Structure formats: structure tokens, C-alpha cells
From TrEMBL, chain A:
InterPro entries: DUF1806 (IPR014934), YojF_sf (IPR036492)
Organism this protein belongs to: Geobacillus thermocatenulatus
Name by which UniProt lists this protein: Uncharacterized protein
UniProt-listed SUPFAM superfamilies: Hypothetical protein YojF (SSF89442)
Automatic annotation (TrEMBL), chain B:
Protein name (record): Bacillithiol biosynthesis deacetylase BshB2
PANTHER family the UniProt entry points to: N-ACETYL-ALPHA-D-GLUCOSAMINYL L-MALATE DEACETYLASE 2-RELATED, N-ACETYLGLUCOSAMINYL-PHOSPHATIDYLINOSITOL DE-N-ACETYLASE-RELATED
UniProt lineage: Bacteria, Bacillati, Bacillota, Bacilli, Bacillales
UniProt source species: Geobacillus thermocatenulatus
A molecular function GO annotation: hydrolase activity, acting on carbon-nitrogen (but not peptide) bonds, in linear amides
NCBIfam families on file: thiol_BshB2
Gene3D superfamilies, sorted: LmbE-like
């Protein structure tokens, strides 16, 4: 993955707007966060291969970046995004890596379901 | 100086509580009508009460009631809820958002507007809210624009903006201010308990600080 180029990501988001797309959205602090630090409250969530349609998608922030997708009656939101990739299958992958390079957040869009 | 009309624009219920509610109470006391445009209901807040009495689904209803109670305490008779969603203001169309605020500006014709200083207010909703107010006002000829007093608290705000140029002593209305803060119970009860243990809150709350917005056009 490459460090985010906000203009390029914005162009990619625009290409997914107003049509059915599959989403993977995830936040994670790792399975061992509470093991390494007992004062740390471990929490995370993900959804995968949920079909959505957004009317407007926007990337904002000075980096790490934030992305918001406005749906007909809802929102998709992710913050802490640092890296991106266009795969050969035309999937847009956005990820946020923490100061140690570990994945903290992922937001991915695809015209076809993720494997 | 007695203002003709004060328009307060913030994105979250309770954004007015700690930094501006004394100023609002003083304007109301002077007989100046105050309109408060609040962009969201703070739907995504993490404070659920101590112990928790709200949940993700009840929080907006509770915060709306808390905001209405705070407005009653402060003497704000014109509260506008704009219906945006917490944590999404920056993703809205900037022109459409400015249109909504421009309509309220045109209707209320305020002599003073209070909002966040765009770029110096930490939360993306704060910055987007302040930016929308400035964008709306820039449609007016410069000499016809009302004064804009901005709240800012980014780490670099004094370095970039200098010292706040408006310092208001709100100690005469401190009881009203404290009641307005307490009205936002789900968001402030824990903070106020912690502050009373430290014992330093009251002095800080008696002063409110603003930067007059400097037009760049």
C-alpha cells in the first residue's frame, strides 16, 4: 500500500458513488491489547460484504485522513486512514496503520463481493 | 456595548456550555435576543452519564432535552436544530451547509455571530461549522458583515492567532452558567465532579475568551 494521495482517493470515491458497492469496514486494536496493558479496554468491530449505495463520498483531514460516505438514510465513517491501494480487481483499499505500523482501521470498497 | 441580535452557531449541544454560556446570559440580561443554531444532536457522543443512563439510540433525545433546558436557563427563546449528524458535518456539501446558515443570518440579521474559529477548534465538526459560517458571511459585502467572535482551543491557536482579543468576565452570571452546564447532564456530570474534586474549575469558568475573526478577503 502507498501513503494516501487525497486527490487520487477522492477520485476513486467519486467512481463508487451512486451505485451498489460492497464494503469492508473494520476497527481493531489487536487481540492482545488488554494482555499487554491491563488498563487498556479492548474493543473493535467489523462488517464485511455489506452492500451499500452512497450519494457522496469525501476524504478530509491533513493526514491521517477521514472518510465519510453519505447514504440515502445513513453514514459510513472512518478515521485514522494513512494508506491506500487500487487493486487489479478494481477494489479501493484504505487502511490506517498505527505508530508501530499495525493495522488500526480499514475501509474497502468493491463492485463485487470481497473473497 | 449592547448588541442588536446575537447568533450562536455550534455543531453540538453543550458546545456553548463551558466557553460561551456566560456571554450568552449577559447578552440576554442586556435585553439582546439570542438565536442558537445547533447543527447536530451530538448523536455520536461517548459520555453516556455517570453511571450510564443513555445509550447510542436514546442519546440524541436526551441531549435535545438537555439543550432545550440549557436554553431555557440562559433565556434563549430561538433555538434552531439543523438536523445534521454528529461527526459528519465536514462531509456535507459546503455550499449547501453555507446556504442553511446564510438563511438564518438573513432572517435574524445579527450584529454579533459566535462560532468556532475554523482550523483552530480541534474537532472536525467544530472546524467545519466555523468554516460554514465564514463561507456564508463572505457572500456579504465586507462592510456589512457582523462581528464574528470565535472560540478556539487548538494547541497552536495562540501561536498563530495571538492572544484572544475579547476577554469577558462572566462572574456576575456564574450561577446561571453553572446551571446551564449542569443541564447537559449526560455530558457534564462526570466532568463537573472531577473538576470539583480538583477545585480549579470555577476560576476558569468565570472568564470567557474569543478571537475576533480576521477576514482574509
Amino acid at each position: 500500500m502507498q501513503p494516501i494521495d487525497a486527490a487520487a482517493v477522492q477520485e476513486a470515491l467519486d467512481r463508487f458513488a451512486n451505485r451498489d458497492v460492497y464494503i469492508h469496514l473494520e476497527t481493531t486494536n489487536g487481540a492482545y491489547a488488554s494482555h499487554h496493558n491491563e488498563r487498556f479496554f479492548s474493543a473493535g468491530a467489523y462488517i464485511r460484504n455489506v452492500r451499500i449505495r452512497f450519494t457522496r463520498g469525501k476524504i478530509t483531514g491533513p493526514g491521517p485522513y477521514r472518510v465519510g460516505l453519505k447514504l440515502q438514510i445513513g453514514w459510513v465513517y472512518a478515521e485514522g486512514l494513512t494508506h491506500w491501494e487500487w487493486t487489479n480487481e478494481g477494489q479501493l483499499l484504505l487502511a490506517g496503520h498505527d505508530y508501530e505500523g499495525k493495522l488500526a482501521v480499514a475501509l474497502e470498497l468493491s463492485d463485487t463481493p470481497f473473497a | 456595548m449592547k448588541e442588536r441580535h446575537v447568533l450562536v452557531v455550534f455543531p453540538h449541544p453543550d458546545d456553548e456550555a463551558f466557553g460561551v454560556s456566560g456571554t450568552i446570559a449577559q447578552h440576554v440580561q442586556n435585553g439582546t435576543p439570542v438565536t442558537y443554531a445547533c447543527l447536530t444532536l451530538g448523536e455520536m457522543g461517548r459520555h453516556m452519564g455517570v453511571p450510564p443512563f443513555a445509550n447510542r439510540e436514546t442519546l440524541p433525545h436526551i441531549r435535545k432535552q438537555e439543550l432545550e433546558e440549557a436554553c431555557r436557563i440562559l433565556g434563549i427563546h430561538d433555538l434552531r436544530l439543523l438536523g445534521y449528524r454528529d461527526k459528519t458535518v465536514e462531509f456535507e456539501d459546503e455550499e449547501e451547509l453555507a446556504d442553511r446558515i446564510a438563511a438564518i443570518l438573513a432572517e435574524t440579521n445579527p450584529s454579533l455571530v459566535i462560532t468556532f474559529y475554523p482550523g483552530y477548534s480541534v474537532h472536525p465538526d467544530h472546524d467545519a461549522c466555523g468554516a460554514a459560517v465564514i463561507r456564508a458571511l463572505k457572500r456579504w459585502p465586507k462592510e456589512e458583515r457582523p462581528t464574528v467572535h470565535c472560540v478556539a482551543f487548538a494547541k497552536n491557536c495562540e501561536q498563530d492567532l495571538g492572544q484572544p482579543d475579547v476577554i469577558r468576565d462572566v462572574s456576575p452570571v456564574i450561577e446561571t452558567k453553572l446551571a446551564a452546564i449542569r443541564a447537559h447532564r449526560s455530558q457534564t456530570e462526570g466532568l463537573m465532579q472531577a473538576a470539583s474534586k480538583r477545585g480549579d474549575a470555577l476560576a476558569w469558568l468565570k472568564t470567557e475568551r474569543f478571537w475576533t475573526y480576521r477576514w482574509d478577503d
